[in-house]
Amino acid sequence: MKALIAMSGGVDSSVAAMLTKESGYDCIGCTMELLDRSDDSEESGGSDAKAVAHALDMPFYSYDMREEFKSSVIDDFVKEYSEGRTPNPCIVCNRTMKFGALLGKATSLGCEKIVTGHYARVLKDPETGLYTLKKGLDESKDQSYVLYHLSQEQLSRLLLPLGDLTKAHVRELAAKAGFVNAQRPESQDICFVPEGKYAEKIYEYSGKDFPPGDFVDLDGNVIGTHKGIIHYTIGQHKRLGQAFGVPRYVCSIDAAGNRIALGGADDVFSSEARIKDCSWISGAPPQEEIECKVRLRYKQKEQLATVRSSGENECIVIFHEPQRAVTPGQAAVFYDEDTVLGGGTIF
């Protein structure tokens, strides 16, 4: 069988490529060119990916997907922030690029499988014939949260060779193989927002002005002036731009009115969340409400909750204990122990 390996130039996808080839697949390596070539990190990533593919004696392709990345990921990021939400562009990238556009490339090359370096696991239930998505065994690296949207068709074509490994073991394998990127440090930033300067990039990409507006208290009284809604997110209490004498936290963002409501520490806790664009790994939503655990951010610990359908591809999450800073735009992902049930977007 043929497999297309998505190679970023990092150590994870490189080891995933090596393990896939060792397991007997006819492998093709590829990288997606997502950013302008003047970006140094993108240059080195593509170069390292090509070097590893060459070392593994694999054909290698580089796809120019800058236009698709901008329209699918960057434009969505700007739109969400402009409307007062806090998006997760890595989820959008996985859905539209890796398991959208790149899966199409795999098909055109005659590849039955696509391979990525995500730390998660795909298993097939022998009784039902359905595929399940599970957490990676290395809890500190688990990336199942960003894959909750995968369909049964996508899971049937996906190989995740790193799901049973720890990051330390992956680096050991890379070093033993002599890969140029064995000790390449990981970036904690969004790839198109170096150093985490979100507002600067939103101004740059959008060309729009986000003017100052009112800070208000929870009764609607004006108590100050903010510097533009794109500088803030739910739960934020530092870098508000002015002092209030008492700690203040962002409770809500009204983009249409250009107003940000501030409250106390207790005011950023919520007992429930509304979720839209729900996706279920099994392919069908639960017929009844379910008790499960819910993760509201990439690195957050899951929380006990009841999930209840509330309409077409929508549901309500009722937390057993109030949760801090439930943020519109972020993903809520549902788990049964280490198994991903599905998820959606908080709104």
- Please give the CATH class of the largest domain: Alpha Beta
> Approximately what portion of the residues adopt beta-strand conformation?
25-35%
User: What is the number of helical segments per DSSP (H or I, 4+ residues)?
Assistant: 7
Q: Give me the strand/helix succession.
A: EHEHEHHEEEHEHHEEEEEEEEEE
From the 3D structure, determine the CATH topology of the largest domain. Answer: Rossmann fold
Name the helicity range. Answer: 25-40%
Overall tally of domains: 3
Low-confidence stretches: 39-43
The dominant shape is globular
What is this structure's SSE topology?
Blueprint lengths: L1 E5 L4 H12 L3 E8 L6 H16 L4 E5 L1 H17 L6 H20 L4 E3 L4 E5 L6 E5 L16 H5 L1 E2 L7 H11 L20 H9 L6 E4 L5 E5 L22 E6 L4 E5 L5 E12 L9 E6 L7 E9 L2 E11 L6 E6 L2 E8 L1
Parallel strand pairs: 1-2, 1-4, 2-3, 4-7, 8-11
Antiparallel strand pairs: 5-6, 6-17, 8-9, 10-11, 12-15, 12-17, 13-14, 13-16, 14-15, 16-17
Helix pairs in contact: 1-6, 3-4
What can you tell me about this protein's structure?
The protein is of the alpha/beta class and about 350 residues long. The protein folds into three domains: about 1-175, Rossmann fold (3-Layer(aba) Sandwich), CATH 3.40.50; about 210-265, SH3 type barrels (Roll); about 270-345, Translation factors (Elongation Factor Tu (Ef-tu), domain 3). The protein contains seven helices and 17 strands. Strand 14 (about 305-310) and strand 15 (about 315-325) form a beta hairpin.
What is this entry, summarized?
Helix content is 26%, strand content 30%. With 347 residues, the chain is α/β, with parallel strands linked by helices. The chain folds into three domains: 2-177, Rossmann fold (3-Layer(aba) Sandwich); 209-263, SH3 type barrels; 269-346, Beta Barrel (Elongation Factor Tu (Ef-tu), domain 3), CATH 2.40.30.
